[in-house]
């Protein structure tokens, strides 16, 4: 979830899961087991469109691949978009609704927490391809979930993640709730764990999902407090010097700091891998909340294990992504299937 996942993820997406308050009965591994069986909570199921639109998932995958080949950062955008959509109450594509002065609807994209998000127009390209094949059938919420799954695969992450579908689209924006639900880049680990525990995600899943910060970039406006007047003591000195070269001083105009950015991962910047976790162990976490994972006793063991085992990271990330994608979906007669993901259907 944001970096592309700037926490709030920047450039395309950042986010991503952080408990121990385990107030929920599901863990990421529970989700993986359920996914394998095809039994989805809330009316979701595998191959939901097998009869109504048999090529739906294939079409999404084709479009995600085409867009990735033309605009590589779209794959990062899909991850951040799913994080933002699902974290704010429900995976219901409310994020995609644009501001409508006539109805008074204010888009979630207008929230400061959504700063740096982009490529929403390409969701429309995917939707158009689906509408040509099966008009009024595939929801925008399912497009976000499937695009995030396929985007992760294009970035070298887990492939063939079982993703249940059957989500419906919201008819209202949750603009007023965004800042309360989306974690901030300088939150404490406890705050982040608590937020994700509400979605049934434990500490292990949080450390895996934040691994999405292995791709994308972070705007300097989220970094200057760690760099000036002195480099954060928890940051590797050489890395701090590099970031000071990327980001202007704290006295620079705010818009300058917004435009400037640093890559989340300099070694494999467009590969979804465990380099994020390796960097945390070296004091190279970009965002404060990232670096804190490496020292908090609830999350540090998972950081070390994922840094040592990319396969374990990928497996845990896949299960956590599925669980996050099933947070409070609208199903059955709830919501609608939008014809245009930007607007509620005309009555």
**CATH topology (fold) name of the largest domain:** Peroxidase, domain 2
Which structural class do you get from the secondary structure elements? mainly alpha
Mean pLDDT: 86
Number of helices: 15
Spatial order of strands in the largest sheet: 1-2
The residue fraction in helices comes out at: 40-55%
Family: Belongs to the peroxidase family. Classical plant (class III) peroxidase subfamily.
Catalytic activity: 2 a phenolic donor + H2O2 = 2 a phenolic radical donor + 2 H2O
InterPro entries: Haem_peroxidase (IPR002016), Haem_peroxidase_sf (IPR010255), Peroxidase_pln (IPR000823), Peroxidases_AS (IPR019794), Secretory_peroxidase (IPR033905)
Organism: Aegilops tauschii subsp. strangulata
Would you mind describing this structure in some detail?
The chain folds into two domains: 55-180, Peroxidase, domain 1; 184-324, Peroxidase, domain 2, CATH 1.10.420.10. Helices cover 42% and strands 2% of the residues. It contains 15 helices and two strands. The model is unreliable at 1-40 (pLDDT under 50). InterPro entries: Haem_peroxidase, Haem_peroxidase_sf, Peroxidase_pln, Peroxidases_AS, Secretory_peroxidase. Residues 43-345 form the Plant heme peroxidase family profile domain. One of its GO terms (molecular function) is heme binding.
């Amino acid at each position: 979830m944001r970096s592309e996942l700037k926490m709030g993820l920047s450039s395309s997406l950042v986010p991503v899961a952080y408990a121990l308050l385990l107030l929920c009965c599901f863990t990421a591994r529970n989700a993986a087991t359920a996914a394998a069986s095809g039994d989805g909570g809330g009316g979701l199921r595998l191959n939901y469109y097998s009869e109504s639109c048999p090529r739906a998932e294939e079409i999404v995958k084709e479009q995600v691949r085409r867009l990735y080949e033309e605009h590589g950062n779209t794959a990062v955008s899909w991850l951040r978009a799913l994080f933002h959509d699902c974290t704010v109450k429900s995976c219901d594509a409310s994020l995609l609704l644009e501001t409508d002065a006539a109805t008074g609807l204010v888009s979630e994209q207008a929230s400061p927490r959504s700063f740096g998000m982009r490529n929403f127009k390409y969701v429309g390209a995917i939707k158009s391809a689906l509408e040509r094949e099966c008009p009024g059938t595939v929801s925008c919420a399912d497009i976000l979930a499937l695009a995030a799954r396929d985007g992760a695969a294009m970035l070298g992450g887990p492939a063939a993640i079982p993703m249940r579908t059957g989500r419906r689209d919201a008819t209202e924006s949750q603009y007023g709730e965004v800042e309360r639900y989306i974690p901030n880049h300088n939150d404490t680990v406890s705050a982040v764990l608590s937020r994700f525990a509400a979605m049934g995600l434990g500490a292990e899943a949080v450390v895996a999902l934040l691994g999405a910060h292995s791709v994308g970039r972070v705007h300097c406006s989220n970094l200057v407090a760690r760099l000036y007047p002195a480099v954060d003591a928890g940051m590797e000195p050489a890395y701090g010097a590099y970031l000071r070269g990327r980001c202007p001083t704290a006295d620079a105009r705010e818009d300058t700091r917004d435009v400037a950015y640093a890559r989340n991962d300099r070694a494999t910047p467009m590969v979804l891998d465990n380099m994020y976790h390796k960097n945390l162990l070296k004091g190279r976490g970009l965002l404060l909340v990232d670096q804190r994972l490496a020292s908090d006793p609830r999350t540090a063991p998972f950081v070390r294990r994922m840094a040592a085992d990319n396969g374990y990271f990928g497996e845990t990330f896949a299960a956590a992504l599925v669980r996050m994608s099933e947070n409070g979906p609208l199903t059955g007669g709830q919501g609608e299937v939008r014809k245009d993901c930007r607007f509620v259907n005309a009555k």
